[in-house]
Amino acid sequence: MQQTDKKYVPLSDKAKQVILGSILGDGSLKIQIKNSNANLQIRHSEIQKDYLLWKAEMLKEIATDSSISVQKPDGYSKRNKWRFSSRRLPSLTELHHLTHEQNKLCIKRTWLNQMTELALTVWWCDDGSLISYGGRKGVFCTDGFNEASVKILARYLKVVWKINTIVAHVSAKKDGTKSKYWRIWIRSSEELKKFLRIILPHIPLCMIQKTLLLYKDSQFQERWISEVIQLSGYSRSAVVAEYKKKKARWNAYR
């Protein structure tokens, strides 16, 4: 049972940004019928345990001693998931009212404009992926949003962050039914690098692979690795180790 607090204490900027990024991805702010205040819940897979713990560290002010737990396999997942569940707080209710309508997340520029580089980083870590040969194109898997909402998000990236994207759909079968999902694609290598340069100073080491572009040309590769090291602040040995792991996985899939 989540702890409920009636006293209003404003969220720190850091916590607010992690929450805003998370609700676009793998987090949710909900107000249950029997409760007056909202709480935040985040779920990540076993392989993203370190990432969830990084988020939990940033969200200590809204946590309890039992906020982190393991969710056993259920009808939606056959594997364990790591879960963060916050206290129920007036400050979270305030954020819920800003971002939701009828207890459902509503994509609007009024609150997207409050996002900083940190929120953008969390959104990418949650739902962004490098794709195509060498991973020099990117996509936000915004499958949970309708076309209109995804277009608002793409417009936000263009106007606020100067990132040119394309909104296009993919088709996939779910429970035997073919469905259409709308996603945001960064199809230019230069646009992708521009975006990655924005988030690199904030990205946790455990997710640095989501910024590591692969090149056949060793000089191009070294230039990007050096840029990642400079912008992220991580050691060369740490970044190169993650690069080697990613390259090995990529070669195994080819």
Automatic annotation (TrEMBL):
The lineage of its organism: Bacteria, Candidatus Campbelliibacteriota. Residues 17-189 form the Homing endonuclease LAGLIDADG domain. Pfam families: LAGLIDADG_2. InterPro entries: Homing_endonucl, LAGLIDADG_dom. This is Homing endonuclease LAGLIDADG domain-containing protein. It comes from Candidatus Campbellbacteria bacterium CG22_combo_CG10-13_8_21_14_all_43_18. Coiled coil: none annotated. One of its GO terms (molecular function) is endonuclease activity.
